[in-house]
Design brief:
Layout (H helix, E strand, L loop, with lengths): L1 E4 L2 E3 L14 H11 L28 E7 L2 H17 L3 E6 L5 E8 L1 H6 L4 H12 L2 E8 L2 E7 L16 E3 L5 E3 L4 E8 L4 E3 L2 E10 L5 H15 L5 E4 L1 H32 L3 H7 L1 H15 L6 H32 L3 H11 L1 H19 L10 H29 L8 H11 L1
Helix pairs in contact: 2-5, 6-7, 6-9, 7-9, 7-12, 8-9, 8-12, 9-10, 9-11, 9-12, 10-12, 11-12
């Protein structure tokens, strides 16, 4: 058990091994969250620890964390209840909460400076009296029976347990008179936050929420941004924290990695084939594989996450070899046997069918255990396996038809070589 205040806490519940239960961890958490709203005395929700948590405070945090930032704390206090109300109405979320809570009772003392000056008192005298009575300040040490003890300045417990006890104090003015504290101090009881939070040097409040079944972190972030656009003015800054920030950073990083992988593969193929057209024909296999990957995710009711994105990056290298086998063999047929583009690519697709099937199926079967979620804690990697198997299978079927068709239309014409040039090349090789 752990907690961040006197009225909040967190407990970790361990589950029996997956083979000894009939429901997954996600199904158990969803079932618990559906039953918790019936308890009105406290706000309770179940969260799941992320498989990958790179940010500080990401473990055990709610998936959506949206940070409101402003230099004026009063503006945050004014807009926060409205923001929470809108978020709780949104069908994307459940169990919406905020870290900034105005539930700590406190007494605010205001000194009447003009009256205090007339009575011969200074603010230092008043503050010193209150501090001496209630702060428990250490005044000195004394030794008794070989032990050292502290001398604490403080009134007795019975005289400092209620807010009204403050008004019982007296302050000595510069004329030696005892003035009751209630004559120069006004007391007001109010509620304030137990902790003031800052984010990027701004005063802040973090809105946290769990998602309803079928919604992703991306859906939650978009919903939070839509609420912010309706309620916040230009003085506010917003940011993401916890799992939401991890999601944003991983999405941007994988998008950059995907684009870089496409560019790198294209440049390598351009150097290998000494052409900018043949690599384009080969790269047609990539959108075919991505279409198969997205279709597979949809069929198995999975989402696009960090694992499925990694799988899509892997597909760039895995599926282009099918196009390489067809295009390279077709170019050789045209160059050495003088076949037309149609004849060369049809013969190439026919003769290279066996190696394409062997390599594609071997890779797909290698990723099948990941897609089937065999072994403990393997469920989070299911999208990776599904993307690889689905993308390879889908591209395998279409590559044999799409690549020859594209090759027929946009493949460049080869320069016919004279017999003398061919003989010179063959002698050079010998």
């Amino acid at each position: 058990m752990s907690g961040t205040g006197v009225n909040s806490g967190m407990g970790r519940v361990g589950l029996v091994p997956a083979g000894e239960r009939i429901r997954s961890q996600n199904e158990i958490a969803m079932a618990i969250n559906k039953k918790l709203p019936q308890f009105n005395d406290a706000r309770i929700f179940a969260t799941q620890e992320q498989t990958i948590a790179v940010g500080i405070g990401s473990r055990g945090a709610l998936p959506v964390q949206f940070v409101l930032q402003n230099l004026d704390f009063d503006k945050i206090a004014e807009v926060l209840p409205k923001f929470l109300e809108e978020a709780r109405k949104d069908p994307t979320f459940q169990n919406v909460d905020a870290n900034l809570k105005f539930n700590k009772p406190e007494i605010r003392l205001t000194i009447d400076r003009l009256k205090a000056k007339d009575l011969g008192l200074s603010t230092t005298d008043i503050a010193g009296t209150i501090q001496a009575a209630f702060s428990g300040r250490r005044l000195a040490y004394f030794i008794m029976n070989g032990q050292q003890y502290q001398v604490i300045g403080q009134v007795e417990r019975g005289e400092r347990s209620k807010p009204a006890d403050i008004s019982k104090l007296y302050v000595r003015n510069n004329r030696g008179e005892n003035i009751p504290l209630s004559a120069v101090v006004n007391m007001a009881e109010e509620s304030g936050p137990p902790t003031l939070y800052h984010y990027n040097r701004y005063k802040s409040a973090t809105i946290s929420a769990s998602l309803v079944e079928g919604k992703t972190v991306g859906d939650g972030v978009l919903a939070m941004q839509a609420i912010a656009s309706r309620l916040l003015d230009e003085t506010f800054q917003t940011s993401l924290s916890g799992p939401s920030r991890d999601y944003q950073e991983s999405s941007s990083n994988t998008s950059f990695a995907f684009g870089l992988a496409l560019l790198l593969v294209y440049l390598v193929l351009a150097g290998q084939f000494e052409s900018f057209t043949d690599p384009f024909i080969i790269m047609i296999t990539v959108p075919l594989a991505l279409a198969g990957a997205l279709l597979s995710l949809y069929m198995f009711d999975l989402t696009i996450n960090i694992f499925s994105q990694i799988g899509m990056i892997m597909l760039i290298g895995l599926v282009t070899k099918n196009g390489i086998l067809i295009v390279e063999f077709a170019n050789q047929k045209r160059e050495h046997e003088g076949l037309s583009r149609m004849e060369a690519v049809v013969e190439s697709a026919t003769q290279r069918l066996r190696p394409i099937l062997m390599t594609s199926l071997a890779t797909a079967f290698g990723a099948l255990p990941i897609a089937l979620s065999l072994g403990a804690a393997a469920t989070s990697r299911v999208p990776l396996g599904v993307v690889i198997v689905g993308g390879l299978t889908f591209s395998l079927i279409l590559t044999l038809f799409v690549i020859p068709a594209v090759y027929t239309f946009i493949s460049p014409k080869l320069n016919k070589k004279s017999e003398e040039q061919k003989m010179v090349e063959e002698m050079a090789v010998m």
